[in-house]
Amino acid sequence: MPAAMLRGLMNPRDSIEAELGMWFAFLRDTVRNSMGLVAAEVWQDVDEGVGVKLRRVAYYTDPIYEGDVAARAVLGPMPALALPGIGMAGILWDGAPRNGAPPEFRLLKAMAEDEDLPDDPRITASAAAFGYVGALYLAGRHPHHTFLGGKEEEHDNGGLLLLFARETADRQLTHPANTAFFRTTATLGGALVAQAASRAKVENARYNRSEAWRKLRTLLNSGMFLRLVQREGDKLESGETKLKPKPKPSKLAVVRLYLRDTVRKFKGVKGAKAPKLQGPRALAAWKACAYTFFGVLITLLCLSSLSWKVVVDETDGRYFLMLGSFGALMALLFGAPNSPLAQPRNAILGCTLSGSISILFYYLSGPEFLGLLPKWLAQAFAPAAAIAISQRVNLLHPPAGAVALIFISGNAKIVDLGWMYLVLPLLAGNCLCVLVASVFNNAIPGRQYPVFW
């Protein structure tokens, strides 16, 4: 609560209020010393296992912000715990930049209208109170953790800093001074997260220790402890009780537990719901569908006309510009333009990488080349390797899998292109699609493409 945070800053009553005061000062300075920010809140990973469970710790809104009343109405109520992909904090958790990278601010109205994101009333309310939201990952341990004796596999209970900005602050947010400030903010926030986590562990250990001593003193003072020891000793001497090592679980029990956990995963994440279907009277849904229809139509008309009127005619049908994977690309560029998998970096480089891998596999399986792999085996290996390698280098792109499969299983007209397949139709077609999508989406209020290059 704001009163507890202010009291923790001035005259804390306990360690919890002192921590709240520390967070209040940190969030206040973050908002006031940056350009364009009007509010901020910090979330901490409270899951002690390998999972992630985010809990909101504190928030701050700038009192001179003209939308301060609406901002407090949104941030004031304590939100529920967030899981990866669920809630605003959970959605922004996976994409939060790390290692000093600047935050990527997203338009809240676009997030509220994005049908690919889970339905979250907090995102809708934030879209009415703010313009943009950005996320910064706060590392929960020292950067030289392993050098100081820690283990690499230990869970990092980090945090998430959500930054809310005005709708007119799009240019200020990317200013170099802001970028440098956010890098410092992430370092300081990570130190505070690590300090808070350490304090929580100390408080928990102190409570457990005092509770254990209280129970032990009760047993000793009542004489119950000595009677229990004497009774167990008599059982051992008489042979009634024998010390047995803890039995190891059988292989059947291990398999049974594994199958039980596997079956439970089919139920889905508890609390997660599919986005609601918009009714026939939902104007926003119809507008989004209309934008998608005309965007896809215009792009494919450009591709088809250039392919038939220019490329095919000029090359006597040897080269072409229309490719089957562009259908999946249209779904991303106009149906989910904010998706990380739809950005130009993934669309162009991911398809080029997948096409190259598919061509290499063709050289391994083609009868006129090495012929090391059967055709049916290469058709499975090429897309599998292309998708896995693209994921490893952070260039994953769904149409790229189709790009690899189209070439490795294509007819003679496609495979005869060889390395030219990467240029025509692949690179030229992808660049044209990205260009048209950029012009079309940015011309529509509430849409933006790309999010990053």
Task: Provide a descriptive summary of the structure in words.
The structure is a single chain. With 453 residues, the chain is of the alpha+beta class. It folds into 2 domains: 2-144 and 154-200, 2-Layer Sandwich (Beta-Lactamase); 283-442, no CATH class. It contains 17 helices and 5 strands. It has helices at 2-10, 15-32, 68-75, 87-93, 108-113, 121-129, 170-173, 176-222, 224-238, 251-265, 283-314, 325-335, 344-365, 375-392, 398-408, 412-415, 423-442; strands at residues 37-45, 54-61, 106-107, 132-138, 159-165. It has a 5-stranded antiparallel sheet, with helices on both faces. Helix 2 (15-32) runs antiparallel to helix 8 (176-222), helix 13 runs antiparallel to helix 14 and helix 13 runs antiparallel to helix 17.
How is the secondary structure organized here?
Layout: H1 2-10, H2 15-32, E1 37-45, E2 54-61, H3 68-75, H4 87-93, E3 106-107, H5 108-113, H6 121-129, E4 132-138, E5 159-165, H7 170-173, H8 176-222, H9 224-238, H10 251-265, H11 283-314, H12 325-335, H13 344-365, H14 375-392, H15 398-408, H16 412-415, H17 423-442
